[in-house]
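User: Predict the full complex structure for these chains.
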Amino acid sequence: MKNSTIIQMLEETCSMLKHVDAYVSCAHLVPSYNAILVAARTNHPDDPFLSALSPLPVVSKGEDGCGSAEIRVLFAQMRIALESLQNESERTATTSG
Amino acid sequence: MPPSDTRDDTLMRAVAKGDEKAFTELVIRHRAWLYTLICAITQDEEQAKDLTQETLSRIHRAAPNYTPQGNFVAWAKRIAVNLSRNYLQQKRRATLASLSELEGEILYDESDPMLLFLSKGLKEEVRGAIQTLPDEQRLTVIMRYFGNMSIQDIAWAMHIPEGTVKSRLYHALRRVRTSLETLWITESDSLKESKPYLQENQKP
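Assistant: Here is the predicted structure of the two-chain assembly.
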């Protein structure tokens, strides 16, 4: 998956989470977070920043997972990690809004 | 931050006509996120209280001239950001207090996603790297990634061209990455020295 696609997914997820109360469980987004992290690491296998980010434990149905605020921070953090890998021309192309 | 809605515009119109109850409702709706936003910028809780009052006071005074366009939140944010920036400039602080001191009190504030920056979900090293950025870069990064603001909104709030916002973000992220790589690679090297049996792919 292209970096720009991953970044767009992260940005859109964060935008969506803006409207969710901070303590609402977002356990259903954990698999997405983990999958995006794997995709990002696949693109940059030697990156120390991405390597430092840990996958989240998947909780079973009915259990409380991390809240929307927490997972939003994690998505934002991954976005910083990926965007900081872009060169200036790539950044101009993806920071449209 | 709550999304702007037409209720704010209605309230502002009422405030302009002298309706103090309408202003009270505006204060209730917006004081919390204004305070936490100002806290995030100034890193000074006491000062943030005063600046929040000043922001609300300016909103009250400006009500007769307010143009209802459904963007009250962006307008109020701009006032808060400007007051906070003026405060920082006046203080000419050489160093900034650690944002982590505020962590316990305003963690996951329900009304201000910008305060996510202070939350425990963020890796301490990442927060530390952002904290050491110059004021303007740090504020831009917080607005962009933790406030989820668009480039256009940041430019508008900070009175700078969009190109400047992009440039600040670019240089800020470069700095963050450089300081983190230095930190993590150094840590990794020292770990390997102390535990030479660790393989390359067994990073801490």
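Chain A touches chain B through 35 residues (CB under 8 Å).
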